[in-house]
Amino acid sequence: MSLFVDRRNLDFMLYDVGGLETLLTTERYSDYDRATITEIFNTAEAIAGEKYFPCAAKLDANEPEFDGELVHIIPEVSEAISAYRDAGFFGAGFDADVGGLQLPLTVTNAVASIFMGANLPLSNYHFLTIGAANMLAEFGNDAQKDSYLGPMLEGRWFGTMCLSEPQAGSSLSDITTKAEPTEDGHYLISGNKMWISGGEQEISDNIVHMVLAKIPGGPPGVKGISLFIVPKYRVNEDGSLGEKNNVALAGLNHKMGQRGTTNTLLNFGENGECHGYLIGEEHKGLFYMFHMMNEARIGVGLGATMSGLGGYLYSRQYATERLQGRHPQDKTPTSPQVPIIEHTDVKRMLLAQKAYVEGALGLILYCSGLIDQQQTAESKDDYAEAGLLLDILTPIAKSWPSEFCLEANKFAIQILGGYGYTREFPVERHYRDNRLNLIHEGAHAIHGIDLLGRKVSMLDGKALDILKARILEEVDAAGAVAELQPWADSLKSYLDEALSATEKVLACGDLNLRFANATLYLDALGHIVLAWMWLRQARAAEAALSSGGDQTEAFYKGKLSACRYFFNYELPRVTHWLNIVGGLDTTCLDVGADEFYCE
Amino acid sequence: MSLFVDRRNLDFMLYDVGGLETLLTTERYSDYDRATITEIFNTAEAIAGEKYFPCAAKLDANEPEFDGELVHIIPEVSEAISAYRDAGFFGAGFDADVGGLQLPLTVTNAVASIFMGANLPLSNYHFLTIGAANMLAEFGNDAQKDSYLGPMLEGRWFGTMCLSEPQAGSSLSDITTKAEPTEDGHYLISGNKMWISGGEQEISDNIVHMVLAKIPGGPPGVKGISLFIVPKYRVNEDGSLGEKNNVALAGLNHKMGQRGTTNTLLNFGENGECHGYLIGEEHKGLFYMFHMMNEARIGVGLGATMSGLGGYLYSRQYATERLQGRHPQDKTPTSPQVPIIEHTDVKRMLLAQKAYVEGALGLILYCSGLIDQQQTAESKDDYAEAGLLLDILTPIAKSWPSEFCLEANKFAIQILGGYGYTREFPVERHYRDNRLNLIHEGAHAIHGIDLLGRKVSMLDGKALDILKARILEEVDAAGAVAELQPWADSLKSYLDEALSATEKVLACGDLNLRFANATLYLDALGHIVLAWMWLRQARAAEAALSSGGDQTEAFYKGKLSACRYFFNYELPRVTHWLNIVGGLDTTCLDVGADEFYCE
After folding, report:
1. What is the pTM of this model?
2. Which of A260, A356, B69, B487 minimizes the number of CB atoms within 10 Å of its CB?
């Protein structure tokens, strides 16, 4: 069985739960049907299996090196990306009129998941390129699109996102990279950018950096940030590459995991003119960036999910094959040892992984589906509703998998025991890779503040109202199925708790106190959303069990067991978190810095 | 400030909470007083600071290598251990009549904590040697002690524990290493041992392996296991080293963390006679091993605690120095940025680390104190009571720090953000190092089964009764202090919940079901024990605040804040765990292996 993708589960999620076939009947996606989508997945799985998966351990053990001139990466990376490029995957999600395949995001994220599962650090190179190309396609002018978009969708040029600086990580307001206008229309960029993934490499012919910078004289803070295209090599009018643009690699960061993705400190304009090209209007850079951020954040959640899946698939195979110990009631030392999957605590750790990983995948595909719904919306209201729901779900889609699929990786190591702690087995690598996801694309706490400080209250709470309505729709639908009714009731009751805690905390005028437990609020609402996702899966499984489905009975029973695990072992944690949030607990707010006595 | 030990906290724990001065008045420890102990700590801190701490990152980045002949370790390791040896620390805890310093375990564990905090993988070499020497001192015969104990206490020969085999990790019952008696009195050892820390190195002149093996014809299972001394070099009658004893290094394991400690697969007797010397009686090996296991397990808990402390100390310093962002109510982008320790969520992550790490240290020192109480007990009853309390606390002392100080390391990384994820900063190393502790010296689940299956019910629940009585003593004492009374009440209430859940689960005759949620039981009872430990610290802090103490007011207030954090944010989790345990939830028991569909 594959150790990086679970095709049966993917089919179940897309068709039985997600209703992809209905989406494929819309005009926008009318070129595709289930058979063609299956072919696309087959191609992705074949390439990932041949080119991505086999070099994952080698890439981790041989991270990119900078010799002062060039960055060296093992050759398998370039070969893998060539195969990905040749299959046309760079442009899979883009409109046909710019040369893309115009596939739904649900499908392109399913494809991305296959490559992420096989080799996350390697797939980051295309993930970032697609993100940057997305931004260009949406906000670039025609000339910019003519110059840059084609080579990016062909996978000849890669892209990066340059936000953070050494002195400004979570606080973008304080970036200092400067963009000075010139009479020739371009800007001169100067400053340093930190944590730039893919910031330097020799795999692609050019690198297109999307850079946040401040134009002198603009407003202070985030309102003075503009967005620029800054290529590694300047581009001539005929599309050929010109001279170097003075983007210098100051150094590679050496990370705990995701080692195969170069991570860089870049100096812009230190040794000569560095040209930048303004995207859209001045001072609106953060708006553009965040407009595209939803997709990037869903992508981070997906990467976290696939790291989790890699550990789950490996540890369930190991648990089936490894013989160790006996059942508690068997006191005969000469009786044969059992596969460890028969030990209840191993089953607990497998169920936990399954509940986290398959639940998270459900959420990511649901969020992807909302963007597809926007693309095919028949009214402005439908468009707006899908957008608002996506807005409120995005902090959860990014953060929840990052937190709980990391926990899944911890269990995968535990199931392998001492072997899991060695680098001869992949589970510790997934654990190291996954630890990044709580940090990048907005640290965990930032998403709590985003959720509680903006998303739940915006437009008089409209996004929260939509979320509530959707969850209650599922509660009604599942409540009509006898086997699921107790879970439906339970979800409704926890949702009521969450709404009540939300009211209490939003009524607090002291912003410091209001946000004091925002991270716990994020975890709590996340668990409620995931319970909703599990109820959707359970309902689809029940329907298949009674009316027939493509999978085995054990498959559907496994879905019900994982749902049961989530409702019994995970969801009740919400009460504790919400007591703290709704009770406006001041423990963390009150403690003085001197009490940690770092004087 | 030191980044590997918190001397002020150590003093508070030993004297204000632990009452070490009273212990030092007993005859056994009458050579020592607070001043001499302080000098010992000063020496340890100086050596650890000069020799252990500076090479920790280098040792991690340059793990031991085997060239087919010899194992090469960076020279700093040997130099560091020389300094440790010269200070007499190998024999610190041993009786004066065998050449030791006869210090209380509370003190030697405090000393060990300093070296573990500075460089855990390096300190493993002496930790293991002391453990093996302990076993020899307790159960070896005079000739064995004459031959081996002296060189070990002088730190010239190191020791190992050889339990696991490739096919038998958690299930010692299934080991197959053989020990065949000879007419010369020694046994011929043959078999493979896996995960042997310190199993090969060139630092010490000899290595004394303590090996579990089966004598042919003995009873099956654990009742047929015997314990042998198996030296790397045989020892001549005059104490000089003889020929090699055919213990061959089959390979080094390459771990995620704790890389500086060689971890080995050893072949015994593959290429010639390998002599083993029986300790005590045949077939009693596991009894001897487990008799000494309490100390080893407390040591693992201490190592986990010190990995946690390393992350806490580093991240609190970073949080004080790093400027980033503003308070929520400050909307002026030009106002100066604040140290991140002023952000409530950063304070939450520091409080969590403090609560986990200082709570765990309290438990480890308390358990060490129980062994000291045994050493100085005036009656058999006192001796037995301390022993039973230690028995029931040991699974928690090993497991709780391993679980929650790893969580502390996760928070330390988060506070440093992107920097925390790089190998330029130590917090990711602590996280990697610490992940081992849930696995070795008994995997997490094994301790849950040990606690629920043996410790709480042995001698008609006498150990649990003693634990309950000790906790209620603290509840009474703290309840008499107005500020602490709500916490005292809360602890009593959760203890009642735990006792009630214990009754319910022990009444279940189906062993499979009884143990189905043993891991959650371990976590729940662990949290209750830790709340007790925090109440002890809070009471000592309150006393110092009202009557004066050696530390600043902020120090004591910090103790109360961490206690408040533990009671508000951590202890309430117990209810959820106990609902599952007491409710005999069958979710994990019921799920079939086929539902994970690995067919």
Report:
1. 0.98
2. B69
